[in-house]
Amino acid sequence: MHLRHIQPNPTRMKRLMDLLRSHGKYDERVLSAISTIPRELFLPKSMSTEAYDDACLPIGELQTISMPSVVAHMTSLLELKGTEKVLEIGTGCGYQTSVLSKLCKRVFTIERHKSLSVTAVQRLHDMGYTNFTPLVGDGTLGWPGQAPFDRIIVTAAGPWVPEALVSQLAVGGILVIPVGPQDAMQKLVKIVKESDSTLSESFCGSVSFVPLVGEQGIKESVRDYRRA
Ligand code: SAH
Fold it and tell me: Which atom of ligand 1 is nearest the CA belonging to 65?
């Protein structure tokens, strides 16, 4: 069967949605989008059973798909209405991209690992998504040729908020990003660009993300040294 005709497993999806609803803090539009997306299509077949657990799972290249509750939380913070141009840093397996695609006008999504990007793009096309534009590269530099963005979401954690992303955010726009150390929990930060010179910042909980590796993130050389 073609991927676009596959429906989420009803029993497992109901259990996941009951759990997410019990948290009582996510945007209902985000929950409806999540409820329609078969998460197992983003994971190897051997993980189909765990696909609806509220867990992050390996997707290759030492990276992980985010927990559904974290996807629900971060996407809710973006306050999407459907008209926005969104920049996503960290395509990964494309799951977060699929949620965004259902809730905004177009997603521009950057991934530094070519192998992950190629697989995610093929999968999203097979599932019928058309309103996204992928790029392989360093997302800490943003995507100057497509800026400004109404929303920016970063799904990897850096030591600070990359300046390029703040400058590519439209006035009135929202940026959601985990910030903090690699080896401990990070703070989820929401930044609203009130005007060209005014940002308002709020902390929206603790999260645990893979490192944001790039020029305005964790330097590749530092990361290699730490892993050695
Ligand atoms: N949203 C993804 C989560 C993937 S994990 C999903 O739903 O699957 C975070 C991803 O960010 C990884 O794939 C990692 O390779 C990528 N990443 C890390 N630093 C990056 C950077 N500077 N630019 C682009 N992608 C980056």
Answer: 8
